[in-house]
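Input:
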Amino acid sequence: MNCKEARLRIALQKSGKLSEGSISLLNKCNFNLRVAKNHLLVQSKELNTDFLMVRDDDIPGFINSEVCDIGIVGENLFVEYDLTNKKHNLEIVARLKFAYCRLSVAVKSDSGIKSLKALNGKKIATSYPATLERFLKKEKIKAEVIVMHGSVELAARIGVADAVCDLVSSGTTLKENGLVELHTVLESEALLIGNKNLDKNVKNKIADLNFRFQSVIRAIDSKYIMLHIDKKNVSKLKNILPGCESPTTLELHENPDKVAVHVVSKESLLWDIIAQLKKIGATSILVVSIDKIMD
Ligand code: PRP
Ligand code: ZN
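Output:
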């Protein structure tokens, strides 16, 4: 048997925000990854997988040239690769709903640049030249793009450029470098990307992996609520919990007027929902985290 076909090769960011989220998602899918700093190849028995720990900038190229089958990258890198390479074999397998960030143009807080128009004739440093050029073209701005492969935030401070175009997540890095955001160029999140031309066996494995990912992603914002309520009030639940047309109910022992109800709620709405449940007489409310939701 060909070893290359037998193992699934996944490229992950070695270190950085994407790396933390990727490993956390994989571990919620029971991959049990423990990545030490100098581990560049990590193997898992789950789905017979090899994880290649690399610079995120290298991930699209590695997948395109079939060094890896799939990988997790920021949308920012995928878009840049797509714009730079007219012909490539990459496709988006799934959006992974973490590592939300944005590619933004930022300027020094004392630069006097207050609008996009004011960027005309100025220099903008970035690691995303193609994405920035597309944006400037759309906005009809003529600026010089300076390509940097790291420490872009320093560019304005040391006089290399008048503005920068870089990733912003919490905004801490911008702040630390005396920069303020002027305009968003691209919204981004983590993507599972793969090579389009993989054989059927590998594609089946990837579908299996993505099923596991989606089960975890669906559960992330969900809570399982158990409560006791008067039977006559069960029908009111659907107004409180949209989509809860026929909740699971269990009769309470020696209390024919009450039932135990089990429902799923979005965590972001939890406190509001609990308050409404109490209003219709819910008692013995228990809220439990959900690991995975399978369809
Ligand atoms: C990103 C990005 C910025 C920083 C912004 O780096 O390049 O430097 O995060 O985040 P903040 O707004 O929360 O400060 P990342 O750690 O993803 O690694 P990278 O070097 O691969 O870009
Ligand atoms: Zn990077």
